[in-house]
Amino acid sequence: MTPKTTWIACVLAAAVVAFGLAGPARAVQGGKSPVQVFILAGQSNMEGHGEIMPRPDSANGGKGSLQYLVKDPATAAQYRHIIDASGNWVVRNDVWIWYLGRKGGLTTGYGANGGTIGPEFQFGHVVGGSIDNQVLIIKTAWGGKSIQKDFRPPSSGGEVGPYYKEMIQHIKDVLGNLRANFPDYDGGGFQLAGFGWHQGWNDGCSGEATAEYEKNMINFIRDVRKELKVKDLPFVIASSGFGGQGCSGRRLDICKAQAAAAKAAGMAYCVDTRDFFRAPDVSPANQGYHWNRNAETHFLIGDSMGKTMLKLMKARLAKAKPAAKPAPAGKTKPEDKGWDFLFEYDLSNASYPKGVWSYKGGVLTATKDKNIWTRKLYTDFILDLEFKTAPGTNSGVIVHCSDANNWIPNSVEVQIADDFAERWAKADKTWQCAAIFGHLAPTKSMVKKPGEWNRMTVTCKGKMINVTLNGEEVAVMDMSKWTSAKKNPNGSDIPRWLSKPKAKLPLKGRIGFQGKHAGAPIYFRNIKIKE
Questions:
Q1: Dihedral sign computed on CA atoms, order 267, 270, 276, 280
Q2: Which end of the chain has fewer CB atoms surrounding its CB within 10 Å, N or C?
Q3: Per CATH, which fold does 3-320 belong to?
Q4: Distance (Å, whole) CA 84 – CA 96
Q5: What was the pLDDT predicted at 32?
Q6: Which helix (H) or strand (E) holds 136?
Q7: Phi, psi of 490, rounded to the nearest 5 degrees
């Protein structure tokens, strides 16, 4: 099959595949096929000039560099996901990137040169942490280019921009040769998931180009969608907000044109970048048109683009699906401020075997011994829910799961059990209700008899896990103390299948519920979460 026919076949196949949201990073291809493909395009600010390391001639101690942001106590928490335990830059193999021939797992150094980052960096972290499928970012950006001329779309008339044509050709070439570009690709096809655009400086240098920017941008979006055969491809524009809230004249006119074009195009949104501007004294350089080479600016632009892209993807999915059933008791959000339902009523944000889990009358239950998982990854949160056991129930609430396919050693399970059943009443105390299964017994049994509703709250913050059952705090676990996979801190044995020390488990992961385990059902309702 030629690259051209491969391209056509993949696009046709992708048209019938729905989006899958949330999932963990893996060592090889991270998630399910089809690969979710995002195009990032534009001029030098999409190339990216955010400095990774402080410049040797820095007079401000390296402010504005990525290394400074990682180490500065004021920002370290926001950037902790980009470094590993040894302080090295994380390489995300669940997010691939291709940038004009440079390719690999997403990490630093995919900016204009190996010493810089662009918006692709945090964009990739955002979408990679929220999409269950493998992600591929194709970046096509060149310095000093206008949409009036260089990226001029066919619908604007006149000569089609050479970089518009080159951009489209690069996209097709990469997607037509996925296996050659990324050997871990499993051959399961791809889906064009979204397009990100960051450009505008060169057009703002000319009154004529500024005046026709809105028209050209609308035509660009329309033509790209037509060329790539995705009529409602989500499109995020990062505005040309150099100078911050003080930008004026043609610079401000470009920003307004970008916002107007996004509104007119539909399934598009313009991110206002003006608040991300940082002054020269807290930046690596005084170079306004490159955001003063400030890594924080490039990071925040990518962060906002990624989060906006996820919202557009969700809106697109909702538009394509039939109307969902109403949420329990007619609600779409919990009444308590700051809370969200863990699972949508139609389970559109969950991952589970088809036909096993369902909501009926506001109660979530399963027909088989198969788990249900959040697609989203969580770190610090409060999970509040009600559950009801049946005679003999043995289930659980699972947190910090980094591998849903091999969850038992790669997570922490808060046990749910019918302690009134002889089998569980005589079991090890770490197997009883509200225990941290196999590791920590509850201080007392607080579960109600089968058929009665219980309320459980699980709070995860850092390595601490607190479990409250029916108003009584019954388990407090400091994971850092569980350094052995064989012995608990009190000297008791850990079940052999829990083969990883809890102290070494990643804290970012899925939340799940165990299904109809040991032959007895489990029932959940009013499941809400606050991050």
A1: positive
A2: N
A3: Rossmann fold (3.40.50)
A4: 18
A5: 72
A6: strand 133-141
A7: -85, 5
Residue 321 is which amino acid? K
Q: Which amino acid is at 496?
A: R
Helix, strand or coil, per DSSP, at residue 198: strand
20 — pLDDT class (breaks 50, 70, 90): very low
Distances (CA, A) of 290 to 112, 240, 408: 11, 11, 48
The tens digit of pLDDT for each residue in 448-492 reads 999 999 999 999 999 999 999 999 999 999 999 999 999 999 999
Q: What is the pLDDT of residue 331?
A: 54
Task: Enter the tokens of residue 388.
Answer: 């009801």
> What's residue 112's pLDDT?
97
> CATH assignment of 328-530?
2.60.120.560
| pTM score above 0.85 | no
CA 429, CA 408: separation in Å to the nearest integer?
19
C-alpha–C-alpha distance, residues 89 and 44, integer Å: 23
How far is the C-alpha of 47 from the C-alpha of 378, rounded, in Å? 31
Cα separations in angstroms, 127 against 168, 226, 228, 239, 491: 22, 24, 21, 20, 42
Place of tokens 């299948």: 497
Q: Please give the sequence-ordered ranges of beta strands (E in DSSP) within 72-230, or none if there are none.
A: 92-99, 102-106, 116-117, 133-141, 190-198
DSSP letter string, 484-521: -SSB-TTSPBPPTT--S-GGGS-S-BEEEE--SGGG--
Instruction: List the one residue out of 119, 153, 155, 156 whose CA is nearest residue 45.
Output: 119
CA atoms within 13 A on the CB side of 358: 8
End-to-end CA distance of the chain, in Å? Answer: 48
Whether the per-residue pLDDT at 326 is higher than 60: the answer is no
Is the link from the previous residue into 34 a cis peptide, with omega within 30 of 0? yes
Integer Cα distance of 87 and 102 in angstroms: 24
Cβ atoms within 10 A of the Cβ of 326, count?
11
Q: Please give the average per-residue pLDDT across 46-58, as a whole number.
A: 93
| Helix/strand/coil for 159 | coil
Q: Which two tokens stand for residue 338?
A: 């700051």
Question: How far apart, in whole angstroms, are the C-alpha atoms of residue 215 and residue 261?
Answer: 7
Map out the domains of the chain as residue ranges: 3-320, 328-530
Three-state SS at 477: strand
Give which of 400, 405, 398, 402 is closest to 480, Cα–Cα.
400
